[in-house]
Amino acid sequence: MTMLAFLRSKYCEAREIIDEIRRTHPGDVPAPRPDGYEPIPDAPDLSSPEHTSHGVAEIEALASVWSTKTLYTGYVLVFIIFFINSLQQQTTGSLSPYVYSEFTDHSLIAMTNVLTSIIGGVSKLPIAKLIDILGRPEGFAAMVALCTLGLVLMAACRNVETYVAAQIIYWVGYNGMDYVLHVFMSDTTELVNRAFVYGIASFPYVITTFIGPAAAQVLYEHNALYTGFGIFALLTPVVTAPLLCLLWRTRTKARSAGIIQPKPRSHSRLRTIIHYAVEFDPIGMLLITAGFVLILLPLTLATSGTNLWSPSLLARWMAPDLIAMIVLGVLCVVGFVCWERSGAPVCFVPYSRLRDPTLLGAFLLACAMFMSFYCWDLYFSSYLQVVFNTSIRDTGYIYNIYSIGSCMISIPVGILIRHLGRFKTPALVAIPLFILGTFLMIPFRSPTSHISAVIACEILKALAGGTLVICQEIAGLATGSHETIAVSFALVGLGAKIGCAVGAAVSGMIWTSTVPVYIERYLPDSKKRLAGELYGSMAKVLEFAPGTEEREAVVAAYGVAQKRMLVVGLAVLPVAVGGIAMWRDIRLKGDHRGS
């Protein structure tokens, strides 16, 4: 009886704590007006849930007292971090195909990208909650640690299993760093200026696109394949430390001045546990994470079957375990929506955001764009080196035309959006050009085409794609409050990562069911025994000079696979058009939301 009484008392105490939290977190915020305009109050609503999230309240207080010099210093440090991160991505990305080839698992590129996209995309939602509750510096420090750990493991690995695990850890950290920095910029800018600031932040990619591949070429030629990963494992914590020190030092000064109040202390351990359990909404987090993982993981399993030489994919997809996972994933997503609407004391994602057509449209556009892109992008660098016989450096330059163009166009697009005060119009102009660029790739990206035609299509897609990325990011943030910045950005990022995962899976399915079969078909009978080795290692293919029977067989097989990838990439783009059509034509001028 004593134990029952103790349990009853703790249950009553827990109910009282939850009821108190419900009272301090009012119901879901109303949806914006149909015309997209939402008046901005002169003072913050102290009853809003955003003032119960410590991380949001803290960054608001910091932003209100930062001097212009401190803010500019913060932006310079952010720019330096973006520069090093982009240089790191360009260098290690150019080396990655050779790492897989060293393990004779060139086809694992697609499977690894699916895994990193799933985990990296889903992880943004818990990261959003983490930085809202605990603070931006804590979240950024955790992401730096993960990114560094991944690079260390890549530098030290000597088998493909360790390398794949390291890639997953690295991309969670890398995407998390990029995400927290974008949230930081959103915290400190007005919505109408945000597109321009995002454009400035992406500009380092223009510079590092030329430096990274050249550095990778030098490392590869000097048999220092893993040294590149080690160099960036040292650089990453060094370049991020000044920004962390600035944030922590500014916060300490603000606390000393009484601008930031210390975190409220709970009266008991039980109250502390329940408080953070309710704030993090573990049920909602578990449902949405499990839902997307269960839906997307079968894509990985379907592309990594043991019988890769079979052109039939139906047997893989009809496996009972894959079907069960997809059904359970859909049920988890439905359960998440129901829980957020009626069950959660504190919503993981405010329900008004889940039914906002502009945010959903941005989600669909991101998903469709990145799915289309990754349908053909994963093996593009391999395709250039094998078909057009380009060097690592030149391959990197051509491969990164999309990055260069999209980053260069983002700054003038940001200025245009600031001038127009709207973001839907540029997107409506860009989407037909994006579709045209993808369509032209089908005839122009073939083994018989000239390399200049490939470059022209890349430029056209880059200009349109860069415009759409900026517009979709602004669309995701345009209808929410400061409290929902992190979650809204995470949802758009999740859409992009879902698109990456699906596109990578489609690319992997086409690659594994096309390339080995056609290599064997095009090889002369006396050399068919080389088919497996040529399929598994790009380095082995490059040992044969252009024009040889072995090289030409692989070139023809790559051409068939690339065409199929582009057709699928074109087929999904109507979804992107539908996503843009869902947006409200929101007026940004005079809107200080999230500033």
UniProtKB/TrEMBL annotation:
Membrane topology annotation: Multi-pass membrane protein
Domain of life assignment: Eukaryota
Gene3D superfamilies, alphabetized: MFS general substrate transporter like domains
Pfam family, one: MFS_1
The UniProt record lists the keyword Flavoprotein: no
Protein location: Membrane
Keyword Membrane listed: yes
GO CC aspect terms: plasma membrane
GO molecular function, one term: transmembrane transporter activity
Full protein name: Putative transporter
Disordered: annotated segments: 23-51
Ranges that cross the membrane: 70-88, 108-127, 139-156, 162-184, 196-220, 226-248, 273-297, 317-339, 359-379, 399-420, 427-444, 484-511, 565-583
Main localisation: membrane
Keyword set, alphabetical order: Membrane, Transmembrane, Transmembrane helix
Organism (species): Aspergillus saccharolyticus JOP 1030-1
